[in-house]
Design brief:
217 residues, alpha+beta, seven-stranded antiparallel beta sheet, 6 helices, 24% helix, 32% strand
Length: 217
């Protein structure tokens, strides 16, 4: 089915995996359908409570978390099996596997580290994964780590391959406090923060009269 010729092109949200050192794009994960809602939570970083508390002094960027629910559905593809042989064989398992790879280290790295441990290596550096960038339009490109991944498989084919699922994703935004200013993700975060500051400058300012007061004493 074709859309109307004058219909605006739909921008989709997703995740871009980049090399943390070079910034080279390694993989683009596009959400099949944009979620109806996006939940964001920001917790300010201050000097805390107590006798010497200074609540107006921010010690760093707020801790921001993002949660969303996405749907993956192979029903349309299964209507045309000749065009979608992979879906016929595996359902939506490849799409789910890509998302699960965000929270699993690669098996080759696990095997390599095990071999190092068996050879007597005393200290093994933790495995570094590609840097995920959560992309939600041009003004929201932000480095994240996946903190939550929950998959509910809702329908299956005759071989028990899932063909429809709901995926809950939770992210923590990584700021310059987490990555540093010299890290690729740190520069991406600063661009994200600066975009917010520019948007804030464009917001219409209110007036004291609207609040029913003439001034602050």
């Amino acid at each position: 089915m074709t859309g109307f010729p004058n219909s605006p092109k739909l921008t989709k949200g997703g995740i871009v995996l980049v090399d943390a050192a070079t910034g080279q794009v390694q993989r683009v994960i596009t959400l099949q359908y944009n979620p109806d809602s996006l939940t964001r939570s920001l917790q300010a970083k201050t000097l805390g409570e107590g006798q010497h508390a200074q609540p107006l002094r921010l010690t760093g960027p707020a801790t921001e978390t993002i949660k969303l629910e996405a749907e993956i559905d192979a029903t349309d593809r299964l209507e045309f099996p000749d065009r979608n042989p992979q879906t016929v064989l595996h359902g939506i398992q490849p799409e789910l596997a890509v998302l699960e790879s965000l929270v699993h280290p690669q098996s080759s790295r696990l095997i390599a580290n095990n071999e190092l441990a068996n050879s007597g290596t005393l200290e093994i550096a933790p495995m570094e994964s590609p840097l995920p960038l959560f992309v939600w339009g041009t003004n929201r490109i932000v480095p994240v780590k996946v903190t939550e991944l929950s998959i509910t498989e809702e329908a299956f084919d005759t071989a028990l391959n899932p063909i429809r699922a709901k995926v809950s994703l939770g992210f923590q935004v990584l700021s310059v406090d987490d990555l540093g200013f010299d890290h690729k993700g740190g520069s991406v975060f600063l661009n994200y923060l600066q975009a917010k500051e520019e948007l804030a400058r464009q917001a219409r300012a209110g007036a004291l009269e609207t609040l029913g007061i003439g001034g602050i004493q």
